[in-house]
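ok trying this again, last paste got cut off
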Amino acid sequence: MIMMRWIGLAGLALILALVALIMTLPLRWVFEVSLRPQGIQAEAVHGSIWNGQIYGFRMGQFYVDKATVRVEPMSLLGLKARFNVNLEDSATLGQGQIELGFGHVAVLNWRGASELYRLPGLAQLGVPAGESLRLSLDEVVFTGAGCQSARGTVSTSLLSYYGHRFNVDLPLMQGQLVCHGQDLGVDTLTQSAIFDLEAQLTLAPGGYRVHAEATAHDQDVVPVLLGLGFSEAGEKWQLNANGPY
């Protein structure tokens, strides 16, 4: 009995020592192994996974001044690493968790907002500072087979902004996070007295794709649709776009 107790204590001590060792891993090493192969860049990476900072975080056109990263020590006991991440930037704010496990990557409990002009595909629309996209993400899980689950909401003031430019009152645009096959996506359905809009955004590894269809119930909304890049297709208006991040 005493021997078993000592073996148990020795095993616990070994596990705690291993956890302590892992927590001292340089964040730069983790970044180079897990993020840079995905095309994510950084100007500088400092500290350890216990308390580290990523400066000049860039994914395509999307840029954040600083990301602070801290690992949750208890998550390491479950043979996975869960990081608390905080984004700090004048145009993008966000905080949540990223979990790295055997065979999966998950984004959890993420809340954030970004200026629309910072987002891929929207800069050319001339949206001014102050118009934003808000994200309330509960869970997104990726495995080797791609997107496995996605739960959360996205909302943006883009329609309201363009409506005001043409003296048309339009609602906020809201969507649900979903999996489009292997890729993460957002499905939106906006209905009002002046028009109906259904859109799908797909975020694939090589870039984004957008397909949207609108039905105009009032001709006052037509200049808004033209400004957003829609073209007339029979009784509907359609938008198809794609591009890199």
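PB: full thing came through this time. The chain has five helices and 15 strands.
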